[in-house]
Amino acid sequence: MKAIKIILGIITVLVLAFFATGLIVKETKYTAQVSVEKPVEAVFNQFNKPENKKNWIPEIQSFETVNQNQGITGSVYKLVVENQGQDITMTEKVMAYVPNEKVTLFYDAENMLKKDDYIFTEKEGVTTITLNASCRSDSYVMACLFPYFKGTFQEQDQKYLNNFKKYIEQEKEQE
After folding, report:
1. For position 35, which CATH number holds?
2. Residue 103: beta bridge partners?
């Protein structure tokens, strides 16, 4: 009987700690970075061509323009991505677009709201892309989960940046 009380006490503490996470951590933030051996103009242009995204984000099933603004900022796209065998529809909105310097994208993927802020810098012909990402959720339970998956989110975005580097540098070899 004493063992059952101890086990129930431990489970209660763990459940309370899990739900307290959502009260304490409102947003999960992380960074990822990659350097590409190409000038910033070429990297920025290739990175921001919607039709190219499938080349480094293999989960994208479809990419559709909902609203294309002339200045790009405010443009909205609809993406369908495959996640563990099921399709998830999300919207991508361009929040900021400064040619050869920065692009900020906001994703609404059901219960996940994500902001990706990409900064492009060049030094001696090598372009560095730095991603500053933040995730939050309208769902309290999902908000409790995100901090525990920070490493997974960061690893996935780093993989996408590495895929982009490989894609654009292979393109260089084909020229």
Report:
1. 3.30.530.20
2. 97, 118
Domain assignment present for residue 8? The answer is: no
Q: What DSSP assignment string belongs to 114-151?
A: EEEEEEEEEETTEEEEEEEEEEE-SSHHHHHHGGGGHH
For residue 120, count CB atoms less than 10 angstroms from its CB and return exposed for 0-12, middle for 13-18, buried for 19 or more.
buried
**pTM of the prediction?**
0.85
CB 54 within 8 A of CB 63: yes
| 112 residue type, one letter | M
- What length is written for the chain? 175
What are the mean pLDDT values of the chain's consecutive 10-residue runs (175 residues total)?
A: 87 81 82 95 92 89 86 89 88 94 93 94 95 90 84 95 93 53
Residues 6+ apart with CB under 8 A from 72: 48, 94, 97
Q: Which domain holds residue 121?
A: 27-174
- How many secondary structure helices (H) and strands (E) does the chain include? 4, 7
48 contacts 118 by C-beta, under 8 angstroms: no
Say how many domains are in the chain: 1
